[in-house]
Amino acid sequence: MKRTLLLMSLMIWNAALGQTAELPRKSPESQGVASVEVLGLIDALDKEVDSLNSIMVLRHGQVIAEGWWAPYHPEARHSLYSLSKSFTSTAVGLAIAEGKLSLDDPVLSFFRDEAPSEPSNHLKSMRVSDLLRMATGHQTEPPRTIDASWVKTFLAHPVPFKPGTHFLYNTSATYMQSAIVQKVTGTKVLDYLQPRLFEPLGIEQPTWESSPEGISTGGYGLSIRTEDIARFGQLYLQKGKWQGQQLVPESWVQEATARQVANGSNPLSDWDQGYGYQFWRCRHGAYRGDGAFGQYCIVLPEQETVIAITSGLRDMQSVMNLIWDKLLPALKLSPLTENPAAHAALEKKLKSLSLRPQGGSATAAKVLQQKFDFPANEHQLKSVTMEASDQAGGIQLVMHYEGNQYRIHCRPDEWVRGEAGSGSWPRQPAAASGGWSDDETFTCKVCFYETPFVVTSTLSFKGNELLYRSQSNVGFGPRGDFQLVGTAAAK
Q1: Which residues contact 360 (CB under 8 A, 6 or more apart)?
Q2: CATH number for the domain including 460?
Q3: Is residue 295 in some structural domain?
Q4: Cα 240 to Cα 235: distance, rounded to the nearest angstrom
Q5: Residue 322 backbone dihedrals phi, psi, to 5 degrees
Q6: 150 and 84: one domain?
Q7: Angle formed by the axes of helices 250-257 and 84-97, to 10°?
Q8: Residue 4 has pLDDT above 60, yes or no
Q9: How far apart are the C-alpha atoms of 483 and 456, rounded to whole Å?
């Protein structure tokens, strides 16, 4: 009898864990969406958008479509960039609910030791609510450097406008929210959210970058899985409630996702519909958190729909347009008749998604084992050697940087997983694909699949010289494109 009760307890416990570990999956038709319409969205995203990494669509809390563009995969955490802001805002809301601060608290009240000796009246009047709605009164964003306190730099920055009257997208303002939460709770935002948000939602092993001061960066730096993004969106769609537990106050969800400040007037732009507390208002009554290069958590309250997307793209509005054009009209009020053939076609498409690998032929033996040296350069690349890595036409690029060496295995027309890095990028999970377009030109793509970045390197060999060109799909400012000329080392 005891053994039976123990087994029953374990079954109930495992069921509860399973419910936390994985969102329920249902056919699109059962949730009022035609599979053929979802397939139309996926086809359009695959063909018209330059680099999607993943997508998950929830209707009524059920996953009706999910896909990853290889080498991205379901278990990989992904850099959220500014989508992190919505999680920092949530931490602020929870700290307010616990009575540790209020929206009307002056920012300076938390940082008396870091404040300038003669703060301006505008700085004195800046409140927590101004940080949340990006209305701090700044004309330019305070910088963040590795050799200065980010808090002191923020407080020393000119505040020419009255706080609350002027919208300026301001990642440093989000950092200040993180710093305030750490001040009043004694713990980083990452650790503060662990028992209050991440664990109840089943978000495992989130990581968050820290500033030189040891504070979670707040405005960026959080990495979680695609399904974790969807869980967060579903929590907000459910007004802060998860499996019968009120994780986030309903009043906070309503305030954070409402229009708190105007930020433009273009009716066709999803960046001009108003801003809440670290959430963007969208067209069609929706709202979202988003991050650079296409990281989205889109919530459509009227349609009970959540869309989580990760990307490495330049035109973020293009994805929003396809959501409105392809998916929104397909969201019906009642279940539809099941369509097994259409659903099978959708599932086949979702399982076959892939970033386009580098094509080409297998080897050009004349440069194998030849080392090419580069003169001193800002990219810290010292030498490149090409080696055969297997009998299937694989190539191994041996990249020697100052203090690091990376061996990148690649084959044409497929992605080979491993690790890679550079002089400035640390060693991290990556997948590579490469081949020869002719006897003198080898091209290699390296996808850092926990980030949006795909780096394409072209190696052109002429006599004893190697022209090495590198290009990243996306980046802040100049995308890090460069070229170097190396010479063959004596054997």
Answers
A1: 412, 413, 434, 435, 436, 437, 442, 443
A2: 2.40.128.20
A3: yes
A4: 5
A5: -70, -35
A6: yes
A7: 140
A8: no
A9: 12
Task: Say if residue 272 is exposed, middle or buried (CB neighbours under 10 Å; 0-12, 13-18, 19+).
Answer: middle
The whole-number pLDDT of residue 367 equals: 85
User: Going by C-beta distance under 8 Å and a sequence separation of 6 or more, which residues neighbour residue 148?
Assistant: none
CA distances to 42, 353, 459 from 410, rounded to whole Å, are 28, 19, 14
Contact 312, 100 (CB under 8 A): no
Residues 255 and 390 both lie in one domain = no
Torsion angle of the four alpha carbons 247, 295, 309, 426, in this order, in degrees rounded to the nearest 10: -100
> In 10 A of CB 356, how many CB atoms?
11
Name the residue range of residue 440's domain: 365-488
pLDDT digits (tens, 9 = 90+) for 206-260: 999 999 999 999 999 999 999 999 999 999 999 999 999 999 999 999 999 999 9
The Cα–Cα gap between 280 and 289 comes to: 6
- pTM of this prediction? 0.94
Q: How many residues does the chain have?
A: 491
Dihedral sign of CA atoms 146, 149, 152, 154 in order: positive
In eight-state DSSP terms, residue 127 is B
**Is the peptide bond preceding residue 340 cis, with omega within 30 degrees of 0?**
no
